[in-house]
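User: Hello, can you help with two protein structures?

Assistant: Certainly.
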Amino acid sequence: MAISLTENAARRVKSYLEKRGHGVGLRIGVKRTGCSGWTYQLDYADEIDADDVVFDEGDVKVVVDSKSLPLIDGTEVDFVKEGLNESFKFRNPNVKGECGCGESFSI
């Protein structure tokens, strides 16, 4: 099982953590919501819990709780800029469908 970051995403996360001044990495998870069932959750990882799985991406740790991991296994996280907008994008090979607004997905 693995979660990966592109170089752009790793640079952005590292920059956010440096500006913040603390944290061990990026926490990625999912929760039930939206019209398709699941949505991604991103946050700073200030600690690593007993049920977390940690992936090292260069200078950045990606922390995923063990319940979310089967739903996002194999996901690549990218950071993209489109005009004035910038955001993290997820390439999840497990996704079977997405809602029209792009906020949630189904497996």
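That covers the first. Now for the second protein you mentioned:
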Amino acid sequence: MRRYHINLVRGLLFVTALLAAHVHADICVNDDSGAQLCLTKAAQRIIALSPGATELVYAAGAGDKLVAAVSFSDYPEPAKNLPRVGSYNRFDQEAILALKPDLLIGWLSGNPREQLSQLHSLGLSVYYSELRSFEDVASTLERIGALAGTDSTAKTAAKKFRVGVNDLRTRYQNSAPVTVFQQIWTNPLMTVNNEHIISEATRICGGVNVFGDLPNLTARIDNEAVLAAQPEAIIAGGMGEENRDWLNEWRRFSGLTAVRKNNLFFIPPSTIQRPTPRLLQGTTLLCKHLDTARGRR
């Protein structure tokens, strides 16, 4: 009888432990490195280690949980007032540790790997992001929302983004192709290949990236390569949200099809180069530009 009671008590304790574990179950998501990240409770002190990550956290409804960001985190407006912990390519680890974050949103290919590894080894929870597609934007919103406990807002934002993207795909799916050179930097002159999210935006609008077959995600090229490719349109940002100087430099190449037809188009860089919901805004403008190019044939 005594053994029966002992076993009964053990059984009850086991069931209680299971129930407690269920109540305090970890919040788990898979990040873009393929690793699973688990938190024991929703994050309350988040640091974003890229400007894009800062936007994503706000869009997922967790902006009030951000305690710091890196330089150039300028959207939305409240992001400008966040404390800075360095830049995306070299951050201040001591400042990060002093803020006692319970979640870091890192950038797999942009942040220094050794710094991210050191922060992880010190026990900080690091979500590694690497957005390569429009769907990655939507799913990242959902995963950040799960980690921050803002699921409802994040899912709504993700759905709105997906619907907007699908509308653009449908609208332009039968549009006549336009060959495009996407300029992402000027000195050195740089572009992207077909694996880059900017090229997905181009394809949605019926554009064809003239440098899409290059082996690297981002690549250095020269003026001669652009002249040889003869794009029908050139899409560029600039050193600021309103700086069109990069496009003006092409006007001296009168032999370029894009110059001859005046198909030199500006898109504010933060709306096309950052993998955030504002990609919808930048892509909508890109589609309008390519329609303009079609009308000039």
